[in-house]
Amino acid sequence: MVTVLHEDPDVLAVDKPAGVVVIPARDEPPGESLRHRLEAARGERLWVVHRIDRDTTGVVLFARGAESHRALSLAFEQRRVEKTYLALTRGVPPEGVIDVALHPARKGKMRPALPGERDALEAATACRVVRAWRRAEGDFALVEARPRTGRQHQVRVHLRSVDAPLLVDPLYGRAATATAAGAPLTRLTLHAHALTVPLGERLIRVEAPLASDLRAAVEALDGAS
């Protein structure tokens, strides 16, 4: 069951669970994707506007018609969309803007670009530490990340570049599982918390509450002595 966060004649926004791809993945049945699940359940066609990673939870927006799809896609392309992520990290990042250009790497990954490197992609992410914990097993933080550009894996690479990778991130954090004060975490510790997008004369803002597994980890860290 996928929770609907916002619905109007032009837009459908849902709270994507972990482990589900937005569009069909290679070598997987098309019906497993979020788009196909929603279309089957609702009996209507939906247009994909943007995507988040398979194991990232939170806000995903779909258009309900070709006209709204064009307008929303243009808003994303022109960087008129405000995105807010919540990330549980190992290490506490400095607050402010991480202004580090990115460059494609092998196997679909991204990396920080070298100074003056050709084909480097401008990338900037504003970070705010919501909460931080210092424990015997290390430092942890709940971080609000607002990407100002939309590069692949941007938040994940930027946080690692300042020595505060996601607590669980097999690609960039070198961990497939972790615990936070005893709370087990088995997927990417990243949540798409909010999205604000213009559509005509309207400004649509949608929020998804922190996913239950990340919330349990935060509560465990708060309660640890």
Summarize the structure.
This protein is α+β, with helices and mostly antiparallel strands and 225 residues long. The chain has helices at 34-42, 66-77, 154-161, 212-223; strands at residues 3-7, 11-16, 47-48, 57-63, 82-90, 96-99, 102-104, 110-112, 124-135, 138-147, 178-180, 183-185, 190-199, 202-207.
What gross morphology would you assign? globular
- The number of helical runs is 4
Oligomeric nature of the chains: single chain
Binned strand content: 35-45%
Structural class: alpha+beta
Helix and strand sequence? EEHEEHEEEEEEHEEEEH
Q: Could you tell me how far the N terminus lies from the C terminus, measured between alpha carbons in angstroms?
A: 36 Å
Mean pLDDT across residues: 94
Overall number of strands: 14
Gyration radius from CA atoms, angstroms: 18 Å
> Can you give the helix content as a percent range?
10-25%
Low-confidence stretches: none
Largest sheet: 10 strands, mixed
Topology:
Elements: E1 3-7, E2 11-16, H1 34-42, E3 47-48, E4 57-63, H2 66-77, E5 82-90, E6 96-99, E7 102-104, E8 110-112, E9 124-135, E10 138-147, H3 154-161, E11 178-180, E12 183-185, E13 190-199, E14 202-207, H4 212-223
